[in-house]
Automatic annotation (TrEMBL):
A matching Pfam family: Aa_trans
Organism expressing this protein natively: Lupinus angustifolius (Narrow-leaved blue lupine)
InterPro entries associated with the record: AA_transpt_TM
Region (Disordered): 1-25
Chief place where the protein resides: membrane
Name assigned to this protein: Amino acid transporter transmembrane domain-containing protein
């Protein structure tokens, strides 16, 4: 069975155009509105726009940690893991959409509600809220670190503005983040259709490619000049602790591919919903290619010196001509990419918190006051979190090992095992069981390893 195989194409298009906008499960903005609603007719999102929006949802901060996963796993297992996670992601989304078609659900929450009732629906909404708030705070912290600088472990890393203009109040972290929030985040977060972000999403993907091209170019120059050593092909496992440490990369892989919370929104706005399978496969193919390239060349370039955040490696002399110019180009291109990813991840956050808190109210698109209030409040929460939390990379790992893995793998697999519409095959159920076992085991070990490492660090610091 494949995505979109349950209704004839003409019936799907007709039912989507006639879908009533009277319940909280309806798309945020229908394809066409009655004239008295006050919106222009919207005939549906294009294939390319959907691909850009889904790709932008996928490619976020996780890309910067992928080279470090190769340092942990070795080149060969690391690249295999990236491809394997892309396969699991495609299957989990296929599970979701197949049961979405069968149950005529219009959101991830209503899909879980169809299989597990109101508590299942509330659980997935809560997970999306926790996950996306954490991710957006991480984005804002990274933007502040790159543009204004950061100090960690007694070492100061100069930001781009600090390096260009010196230390001033207007190059400080708080002002830069506040200006970015008011000038860019707030306007882009005010759109009521995710398809309205298709052009910024296309630019976002292009900036990620620019980041990749520069990194690849630097690596090739270093290879030619003999400045690159042979990378580690396989992990160094000497004891139980080093074996368990391998599992700490799992949350990074999960976070790198998480996009499930935007699939229904993109599907609801597609002009032809039968294109969704192609949209998912194209986006995953594009993002996997970018992930493989940046992981390979990033690890090749920095080797065992690869940091958890590979952007931090681009603040020193790379040993090639125009090193600092290239460093700034890398950091600016990826920071601009994250700025444009922000509204795409913010969109489902607002939609899910509205569904959780105002499930009995009229659709969010028809209530401008509620829409504005939620937008302002959520941006305020993210802004405060980014300014008062000094570093949340550890928290980011814990989020990836809990809410993200539930959204991406455990919930879709649970829907298959529940099989409310009796459409899952034996192979589907076997894969669903494997998916849940892998997710629970790997992330439980990752949580244990992270907690153990933090405990040892605290104990050492006190001593």
């Amino acid at each position: 069975m494949t995505i979109g195989s349950f209704e004839p194409k003409s019936e799907r298009k007709r039912s989507r155009k006639n879908k009533a906008v009277v319940d909280e499960n309806a798309p945020l903005l229908p394809k066409s509105q009655e004239s008295d609603v006050g919106f222009d007719d919207f005939n549906g999102a294009s294939f390319s726009g959907a691909v850009f929006n889904l790709s932008t949802t996928i490619i976020g901060a996780g890309i910067m940690a992928l080279p470090a996963t190769l340092k942990q796993l070795g080149m060969v297992p690391g690249l295999v893991a990236i491809i394997f996670m892309a396969f699991l992601t495609e299957k989990s989304i296929e599970f979701m959409i197949r049961f979405t078609r069968a149950g005529k659900s219009t959101s991830y929450g209503s899909l879980m509600g169809d299989s597990f009732g109101k508590y299942g629906k509330a659980l997935v909404q809560l997970c999306v809220i926790i996950n996306n708030i954490g991710v957006l705070i991480v984005y804002m912290i990274i933007i502040g670190d790159v543009l204004s600088g950061t100090s960690a472990s007694g070492e100061h890393h100069s930001g781009i503005f600090e390096g260009w203009f010196g230390v001033h109040w207007w190059t400080g972290r708080t002002f830069v983040v506040l200006f970015t929030t008011l000038a860019i985040f707030a306007p882009l977060a005010s759109f009521k259709r995710i398809d309205s972000l298709r052009f910024t999403s296309a630019l976002s993907v292009a900036l990620a490619v620019v980041f990749l091209v520069i990194a690849v170019g630097i690596s090739i120059v270093k290879i030619i000049s003999g400045g690159v050593a042979m990378p580690k092909l396989f992990p160094d496992v000497t004891d139980a602790a080093s074996f368990l440490k391998l599992f700490t990369v799992v949350p990074v892989f999960v976070t790198a591919y998480i996009c499930h919370f935007n699939v229904h929104t993109i599907d609801n706005e597609l002009e032809d919903s039968s294109q969704l399978r192609g949209v998912v496969q194209t986006s995953l193919g594009l993002c996997s290619s970018v992930y493989i390239m940046i992981s390979f060349f990033g690890f090749l370039l920095f080797g065992d010196g690869t940091l958890d955040d590979v952007l931090a490696n681009f603040d020193t002399d790379l040993g090639i001509p125009f090193s600092f110019v290239l460093n700034d180009a890398v950091r600016i291109s990826y920071t601009a990419h994250l700025v444009l990813v922000f509204p795409v991840v913010f969109f489902p956050l607002r939609l899910n918190i509205d569904g959780l808190l105002f499930s009995k109210s009229k659709p969010l698109v028809l209530d401008n006051f509620r829409f504005a209030s939620l937008t302002i409040s959520l941006i305020g929460v993210v802004f405060l979190g980014a300014n008062f939390i000094p570093s949340i990379w550890d928290a980011f790992q814990f989020t990836g090992a809990t809410t993200a893995v539930c959204i991406g793998f455990i919930f879709p697999a649970a829907i298959i095992l529940r099989d409310r519409h009796n459409i899952a095959t034996k192979g589907d159920k076997i894969l669903a069981v494997i998916m849940i076992v892998l997710a629970v085991f790997a992330n439980a070990v990752a949580l244990y390893s992270d907690a153990y490492t933090l405990f040892k660090q605290n104990k050492t610091s006190r001593a």
